[in-house]
């Protein structure tokens, strides 16, 4: 397929932003890591979707609009109009968009497990779109060794959610004066939860305050069930952990020929 010049430029920038996001994920320094990863991951999707839209329509502007499409508008067009993004993928992209807004305009904090889930889920969607729409493999553009790795990837969904909420509840204990940190860690969960209902705006302060109140009351962990379902949605894209061959690894990456890989 012959790509239009501007579509090629958008696609190249998308890959560059994803590359930087992956580099930040894998680097040992934690300086500005979470905010920068999410901002670049969201930018990579905005550029990739604009590439696809420009190739299909010859423009990334609505009639009468002076500015190009926002990420939210790109997602809507990709799902509802040109139908290259699947409805379940919309949920994940909206969560990334909300997290980007939080990282840009507010404070956001993620545990290593939750950040890993975001990156793996995002890369799965990016890889599919690149393959389906342009016939290109991400592994041809990036060495396989740079794909996000973790010394201890999450394997237990319930433990991930309960651990996060328990840590946030501890920050909210009387006398600790760490409500700002608790709010920063709650926002990614609220973004995930909101994206399932189709919300595209970042969580409001009222929503953060309501979640904090639930956790302070001691009954917030019960509400982790709904958040767990949102995280589980991400994990379907992040992949399943296998226990076969010579070592544990993530399905599709490291499965050895002839091994009896099975989900953990």
UniProtKB/TrEMBL annotation:
Protein name per its UniProtKB record? DUF3644 domain-containing protein
Region annotation (Disordered) maps to 245-264
Residue intervals of the DUF3644 domain: 14-151
Note the InterPro entries from the entry: DUF3644 (IPR022104)
Q: Which Pfam families match?
A: DUF3644 (PF12358)
């Amino acid at each position: 397929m012959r790509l239009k010049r501007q579509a090629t430029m958008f696609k190249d920038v998308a890959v560059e932003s994803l590359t930087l996001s992956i580099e930040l994920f894998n680097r040992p320094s934690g300086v500005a890591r979470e905010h920068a990863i999410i901002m670049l991951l969201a930018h990579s999707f905005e550029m990739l979707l604009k590439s696809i839209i420009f190739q299909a329509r010859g423009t990334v502007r609505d009639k009468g609009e002076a500015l190009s499409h926002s990420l939210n508008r790109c997602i809507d067009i990709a799902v509802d109009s040109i139908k290259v993004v699947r409805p379940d993928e919309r949920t994940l992209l909206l969560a990334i968009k909300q997290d980007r807004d939080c990282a840009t305009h507010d404070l956001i904090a993620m545990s290593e497990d939750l950040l890993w889930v975001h990156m793996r889920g995002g890369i799965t969607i990016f890889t599919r779109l690149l393959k389906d729409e342009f016939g290109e493999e991400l592994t041809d553009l990036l060495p396989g060794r740079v794909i996000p790795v973790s010394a201890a990837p999450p394997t237990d969904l319930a433990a991930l959610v309960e651990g996060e909420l328990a840590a946030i509840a501890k920050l909210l204990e009387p006398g600790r004066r760490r409500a700002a940190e608790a709010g920063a860690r709650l926002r990614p969960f609220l973004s995930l939860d909101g994206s399932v209902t189709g919300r595209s705006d970042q969580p409001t302060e009222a929503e953060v305050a309501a979640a904090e109140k639930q956790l302070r009351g001691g009954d917030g962990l019960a509400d982790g069930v709904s958040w767990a379902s949102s995280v589980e949605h991400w994990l379907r894209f992040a992949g399943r952990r296998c226990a076969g061959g010579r070592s544990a690894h993530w399905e599709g990456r490291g499965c050895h020929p002839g091994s009896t890989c099975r989900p953990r």
